[in-house]
Amino acid sequence: MSVLVLDDSENMCRILTRLLRSFGFEDFRFAGDGQEALNHLRERSVDLAIVDWHMEPLNGIDFTRQMRSMKTSPDPYLPIILLSGFTEMERIRIARDAGVNEILTKPVSPESLYGRLTSVVRQPRPYIETEQYFGPDRRRKEAANFAGPYRRRRDKRRPTI
User: Fold this and answer.
1) Which residues form the domain of 48?
2) Disulfide check for 2: which of 27, 83, 106, 140 has CB 3.0–4.6 Å away?
3) Quick check: helix, strand or coil at residue 51?
4) Is the pLDDT assigned to residue 154 strictly greater than 70?
């Protein structure tokens, strides 16, 4: 599998690369901000992206939103693991609503990274599209007997948002 590591910290890129190599990954791409990452992905696709939240000029959340919603997105279905040192519920909601597949908190441990990778690869959530959202299903549990007016559509069409 090929991995895009999107982080403006060279030290964090080294740490992630060492951990990913220990799990058997060999093909890496690196970018220091979201715009650079989008440019890389237009030239060559990857199987997975690990992105930091805080970068300039385009941060990890904005990168994720663009990957999920732009009509010219290189890959709206790209699995994205977001790195963050912040664990407040509001930040988790923001990341979830942007379309990240998983959130990984810093400091990164081998066990936590492996767990997120396993979740993305072995237990991928279906992608859904609504009027305001395209990305992995934000629900972790299936609601039984939902009777509301807007049942989520599960399909693999390109996003039209």
Assistant:
1) 2-154
2) 27
3) strand
4) no
Per-residue pLDDT, 139: 75
pLDDT at 161: 40
Q: What is the DSSP string of 33-48?
A: SHHHHHHHHHHS--SE
Radius of gyration from C-alpha coordinates of the chain: 15
Q: Is residue 122 one of the residues assigned to a domain?
A: yes
Total domains present in the chain: 1
Query: C-alpha angle 18/21/26, rounded to 5°?
Result: 130
Whichever domain contains 69, its CATH number is 3.40.50.2300
pLDDT band at 132 (very low <50, low <70, confident <90, very high): confident
Give me the phi and psi of 70, to 5 degrees please: -70, 135
Is position 161 within any domain? no
Spatial distance between the Cα atoms of 105 and 81, rounded to a whole number of angstroms: 10
**154-to-34, 45, 89, 95, 134 alpha-carbon distances in Å:** 27, 24, 26, 20, 10
- Distance, in Å, from the CA atom of 53 to the CA atom of 143, rounded to the nearest integer, reads 30
User: pTM for this one?
Assistant: 0.84
pLDDT tens, position by position, 12-66:
999 999 999 999 999 999 999 999 999 999 999 999 999 999 999 999 999 999 9
